[in-house]
Amino acid sequence: MAEMPEMTEAQIRKWVGKATAAKGKELFEKGRINDFDLNEGGKSVVASVRGDDRVPLQVQVSRSDEALTHSRCSCPLGEKCKHVAAVLYEWMDELEGGEAEASSPPVGPFAFGQWLGALENVKDGSAPTTEYSDGIKQRLIYILEPDGDQDVRLHFVTARLLKSGGYGKAVPYDAANILQYSVPQYILSSDEKILREVATDRSLSSLRGYRIKGEEGLGILKRVLSTGRCHWKDKDHQAMKRDDKRRGEWQWKLNSRGDQHLSLQMSQDEMIVPTSPPWYIDVHANLSGPIETGQPSTVAEILLNMPAVELDCDDDVIAKVTAQLPVGVPGPVRLTHEQRQVRPLPLVKLYTKKLAQRWGHRTPDLCHVVELWFDYDGKKTPYCTDPEAIRAIRGERVIDYHRDMDVEREAFEAFEVAGLLPLAEQELAELFDFEAQMFTLDNESYWPEWMLYEAPELEEKGFTLEVADNFAFQIEHATGWQLDINQRTGGQGSGLMGQASLTVTLSDGEEVDLISAMGSWVGKQPELLSNESLALLKEKEQVPLPLPDGRLLSAPGEMVANILRFMLDVFAGDKKTEEVVLSAPQLLALEESISNSDVPVQISSSAWLKHMKQLSDISTIPECDVPKGLKADLRDYQLAGLSWMQFLREMQLGGILADDMGLGKTVQALAHILKEKEDGRLESPALVIAPTSLMHNWRREAKKFAPSLSVLVVHGPTRALHFDQLDSFDLVLTTYPLLARDFDTLVEQQWHLLILDEAQNIKNPRAKGSQLVRKLHANHKICMTGTPMENHLGELWAQFDFLMPGYLHDQRNFTRLFRKPIEIQGDIARQDALNVRLRPFMLRRTKEQVALELPPKTEMIRSIEIEGAQRELYESVRLAMQKRVRDAVASMGLAKSQIVVLDALLKMRQVCCDPRLVSGISHDEAPPSAKLEMLLDMLPEMIEEGRKVLLFSQFTTMLALIEKEMIKRKIGYVKLTGQTRDRETPIESFQNGEVPLFLISLKAGGVGLNLTAADTVIHYDPWWNPAAEAQATDRAHRIGQDKAVFVYKLITEGTVEEKILELQERKRQLAEGVVHSREGAQNSLWSPEDFDMLFSPLT
What we know:
The protein is α/β, with parallel strands linked by helices. It folds into 6 domains: 95 residues, no CATH class; 200 residues, no CATH class; 129 residues, no CATH class; 137 residues, no CATH class; 236 residues, Rossmann fold (3-Layer(aba) Sandwich); 175 residues, P-loop containing nucleotide triphosphate hydrolases (Rossmann fold, 3-Layer(aba) Sandwich), CATH 3.40.50. It is 34% helix and 22% strand. The strands form 10 sheets. A 7-stranded parallel beta sheet has the order 37-38-36-39-40-35-41. A hairpin with a 4-residue loop joins strand 3 and strand 4. Helix 2 packs across helix 3, helix 17 packs across helix 18 and helix 18 crosses helix 19. The longest helix is centred in the C-terminal third of the chain and has 25 residues. About 4% of the residues have low confidence.
């Protein structure tokens, strides 16, 4: 070989730049250079460089003594790249080693002559072994590593021997230290000889360690093996041992250029060491020994260093080489060389690369890469703008394919449209070996959608996709779907809760729990539960759903969105469990959604869910028989309400009866209690807790509609007398204020049924009454309210927490999952998810919904009990008026005492309406009005339902007091009295819907008005003349009215108001006479019994 000019690392850095030189040195140290061919002049090199064990890149380098005159590489950069730098380092290493061993130069007259001359010279050698003495724990360890396909390198490390027999942390040791420093105790004499030999023999040393080659290398290998401290690649591997000879076969090996090299071939586990004679290393058995070549060792060494035979070598040279070879060594093959032109097929390669971390840089752990390649009749090559032919080796044929640059450019343009960015232009480019054009996406989150939509479009355009096993975004397609739903046994709410699993079978037969996978997905991307995300998912035909192992399942977008929506509180919960527990309504919605999807899902659900399905549609609940003892004809919607409550009781569930005011919630509840009694289930009493103002309504309606029920009203100072008799009653009535006082008694009783009327009273779960009512023991619970939510969703949660604790989660999680997203963010998806849970257990019918079942006019009496100071005032006024009337009758007779009687009755009625109406009583000292409190409870609920209300009173002063309350509560109203001059303005304002309330006095509005916008009439105080009362009601209920009208009469219980109503039924003419006595009413209309009744005391 001609003498080569010197080369230094400083020159390499100068020629290609420091950064590129550093990258090239790394490739060199990894042993990535193959087929290193140095020309005979020693000033140019042709080599191939491997990047990530892929198709080799071809590199050509030429240089003068001081300059790099030419460089070319088949990578996208083309020249002065890190691949060129790697070849320069290999070249420098060859110069330092004294000869080039990676690959011999092609056969020519000069090179071949060298080889024939070397056949004359042969050598041989060996070395002794030794052992460490006791007490020395540090060890010198020998590490052998492969360097490319043909070389083996030796490294030295030191490590401490551990008690376990293993080694501690390894520290590299430089053999050159033995020449410069004193010898450490743990370096034995045998080690010292090895170290000195490799440190002084330049033919063995290199930048990557020490070559094991030739006679010298074999001698070192033998001595290293004899120490018992030689390891393959890693000190923690088993120590290598010397073994017997193994047979090697002489074969000619082709490189990527079509050049032939003579080599020994053994099994895949055996690596050939180019010593003289050659040895093998069994990398799995950790053994090493000589190779039986069939030739003398010196001949074998010369054969292994034989120059390569070029593709286009003359037949004469091949014949000459074959003739010179020893017996048993085959000659080189005569190859055919063809030129072909075919249409390439575009190929997309996808893989994930782990990135090295850079000091001072924020580098991602992984980068997902796409490469564009072309398949030329089985020969694959990366896209490149260089039109150089592609060479393929097919047996004894070498084929050069001419690149079709038009086809490649067309494919590249389609590739660019797919949204990929050149990796060479990205910040991470310096971390890659550009063996091919590389592309990526600028955001990792885009990959799932790219694989689902862009990749298939490339396939439709003729691209073939090759997806590496390590690629992080592989798309899977399901071959089967199975939904299983079963009732959950045990635990809180077991009768209402169930378990669901959606199993997907993948193309490889693996089964995956999709619901669990979706939970993990949402856990990493909680924004998926937002309104916008769910809407986008629903619009997509397919979405990429991440599976536990990192693959992506192509799943229908609408089905995925519905599952997320119906199970929103499960996925958004802060308790991550393996068990997916859902309420029956959620499971029903999930089943319906999946069954209606385009995916052929096999659904298996238990009989329990089929039974629970009736909850989702009240019309499917079996209609129960009306109790025989009910003295009322239930309308269809009321019978449906009764059947619903019966079904809830059967399923051991609770619910909220939330019908509009006036639709008969009380009679439905009474029918439910009566049904329980008649069917023999009322083994313990039913308890109704209601506001004080409704106690007597319940008692009166129970007496009217369910007279067979024995009723106890737990109210008043003597209520404790009946505490030991609770079990003897069917129905016990008490009030919210008395709950705390009587709690010790009520909590000891087992109730068959517990009903909370006006259940919004427990809307504050921290209030004492709310906490106490949760401690009562009942088999079945019902809430009744026309306004289940007045201010916020927390009020609704409080009622459900009473009915079915835990069904809507605890208060903190309910607020986090539903209340804040719905009330603050307007999250429709959360609202839908909550509605799914609520709908089966909250029965609400508005008057508009049941309008066809309602009569044109429904009249209801609201009884109010007056208590405390108002009761005392009434009794005081009644006694005084009774005495005054009796004195007048005694002195003038009844006929002449009518004015006295009417004035007495007026004062008693004023006390019933509001004590402030009574002359002589200061407003500040007057006791509160129970009737006004009842009105102020009713009006907000009515107005919230959208009702238009006419409120009549014969006392204009009473209307003024009500007016003040409306202003205070910011309720819009208009008023019409005898003092109103402009009557049209308030009438039009009410009729046009500007205000919901019309306050009207008897004289001003009792007749002549047409107020068909109204659907509710309230008679604040009863009118003794039923005809006049009916005329006032007809202001709303008249021709042109298209809505049912509800009429409420507010009556104070036990007072003169209630007595007048009784007289209206018995003696309508007498009642009229009370009002029209001045117009000729006769004495015969009165009787002493009537007089005594009107002035009778409160009971």
